[in-house]
Amino acid sequence: MNNTEALDTAGLDLTLADAQAIDDCWNRIGIHGDKSCPLLADHIHCRNCSVYSAAATRLLDRYALQQDAHRPHAAMERGEDVITRSLLMFRLGEEWLGIATRCLVEVAPLQPIHSLPHQRSRALLGVANVRGALVACLSLVDLLGLDDTTRGASGGRIMPRMLIIAAQDGPVVVPVDEVDGIHAIDERTLKAASASGTQASGRFTQGVLQWKGRSLRWLDEAQLLTAVTRSLT
User: pTM of whole model > 0.90?
Assistant: First the structure.
């Protein structure tokens, strides 16, 4: 199921407050409304619009959080003492990575990046407009030393995103190829991944864990944010 198809299914288990928090413009001025939306002429159907896709992503993220929230309770009923950490899972090229949500401000739709003259850092892509404010935009590919030749979609309908993260001197934006969502990971799994060693795992890596049949790099957010600050000075 892709993001745009999820609006009619994921929303079934959401609370009324969650549903009301999302502006369902497709039901008012879109294909299911009076069709007065000026974007319809270009997109033909609301499911082709970035506003619709962004709303679907928000619904899926909330649904994932609710599902993850049920798992620790189920373990507690079995008498297990479970402690979890919340990680955002995302993709760069062919590599999946996870980062602690405590350093995440928001997941936003992809915005145009405006380059800057005389940039001092290779990782600094330029600036992006975030709600009217210009925010520095950095390349995680460069910061993490990834292979740039593998960038792009891995198949299916993929929606690139921008992660807004809280750096020392203010928020910065990093574009990513895909966001899977926020997941609660058992701390024992993370400790095992960290204990397995990170020598061959790459820059700013706390460990590697198996997740959804993939190898996922768990990033050390403290080291990464230090590198972000260094790239901006």
Answer: no
